[in-house]
From TrEMBL:
It comes from Sphingoaurantiacus capsulatus. InterPro entries: AceGlu_kinase-like_sf, ACT-like_dom_sf, ACT_Aspartokinase, ACT_dom, AKii-LysC-BS, Asp/Glu/Uridylate_kinase, Asp_kin_monofn, Asp_kinase. The keyword rRNA processing does not apply. It holds the Pfam family ACT. The lineage of its organism: Bacteria, Pseudomonadati, Pseudomonadota, Alphaproteobacteria, Sphingomonadales. Belongs to the aspartokinase family. NCBIfam families: asp_kin_monofn, asp_kinases, PRK06635.1-2, PRK06635.1-4. This is Aspartokinase. Pathway: Amino-acid biosynthesis; L-threonine biosynthesis; L-threonine from L-aspartate: step 1/5; Amino-acid biosynthesis; L-lysine biosynthesis via DAP pathway; (S)-tetrahydrodipicolinate from L-aspartate: step 1/4; Amino-acid biosynthesis; L-methionine biosynthesis via de novo pathway; L-homoserine from L-aspartate: step 1/3. It comes from the Bacteria. Residues 264-348 form the ACT domain.
Amino acid sequence: MARIVMKFGGTSMAGIERIRNVASRVKREVEAGNEVAVVVSAMAGETDRLVGFCREASPLHDPREYDVVVAAGEQVTSGLLAITLQAMGVPARSWLGWQLPIHTSDAHSSARILGMETGPVGEAMTRGEVAVIPGFQGLADGNRVTTLGRGGSDTSAVAVAAALKAERCDIYTDVDGVYTTDPRIVPRARKLERVTYEEMLELASVGAKVLQTRSVELAMKEKVRVQVLSSFNDTPGTFVVDEDEVVEQQLITGVAYNRNEAKITVVEVPDRPGSVGALFGPLAEANVNVDMIVQNIAHDTGNTDVTFTVPRTDLPKSLDVLDKAKADIGYSRLITDDNVAKISVVGVGMRSHAGVAQTMFQALGSRGINIQAITTSEIKVSVLIAEEYTELAVRVLHTAYGLDAA
Ligand code: ADP
Ligand code: ASP
Ligand code: MG
């Protein structure tokens, strides 16, 4: 007998028929003698619908009330799953984020999990009751409902698994594992039997949305055994593991893309100490997460251009901040472009091999794809390109690094 956490995403919970399928899978684990906590997402499309209502009600809405609205999607599916399990003869009870509670920071709409009470829910599980927990929700000081940021149910599941000391955390989704790239845009993508925490973290942070970045961070820290697998078939999934558990190391493990960034070029920034600080300081204060940064060499005039990317949703706020700081920074004008995409290749094999970036530049160049910015880390190279080339670039790189399935 083991204690396990099963997490089901939006597609898996989309409608009563699919919830029945989820309930059968849960029942199977219960009948195998396991104590089960299930973490569920809202039905596919529901969170978008709720976000839309908030925007329609007021473009500049109170984030505390936004959280009250968008957390509702998961409340519905957790109740429905508990009803369905009960109808199948499986004792089950829902435990909403505020009822457990799952304590979070008060960063509404992207709150961080701080801890979770496990007493009563643990006792219920020991009595043989399935605990159904809505993902994405938490509770901040002052008893306000919070949400964890889009895709946050993965993080809820890992946090629940860590708190309940579960043997494993199974993330059921609409693909049967983690692939070398998004299988929806590259049919020749290969499923990985194992992926290291570190690579999964990089892949998630550069756009592979199969797991939310924070969930991988948490799994790595708390040593939670995570598996990604399909809700719709029984094929083996992908295990997220420590590096020493990967036998045959590839040079590149995966390719990811992100269409959620926008590019800003600040023209003619004075090339003197402190000017870059004057530029990025106000953006940091406004909570804008700057990603790629390129500073050009100075012109004869003593000025330089600085190009960087920000989340696309933060573009209006960033322009507003830069406009207000214009006199302090001393630039002449701003150029923006939100038709960009960031393409990244990730692999721990990069640490010991030269020429990885060059393969990327050559492959993209040979297809006429221009590179607008570059960033690297120890196990990742990212480039910014025109958005229209996203799929082509991902496919070309997947082939260039020998990742295509036979
Ligand atoms: P859920 O609703 O179950 O949380 P998500 O839509 O958040 O599911 O994540 C699953 C999706 O992630 C897949 O449908 C797939 O299109 C996408 N994806 C992106 N990159 C990858 C990858 N490397 N491997 C598998 N899926 C990926
Ligand atoms: N329902 C939330 C979202 O769509 C959380 C999740 O599904 O992980 O972002
Ligand atoms: Mg998801």
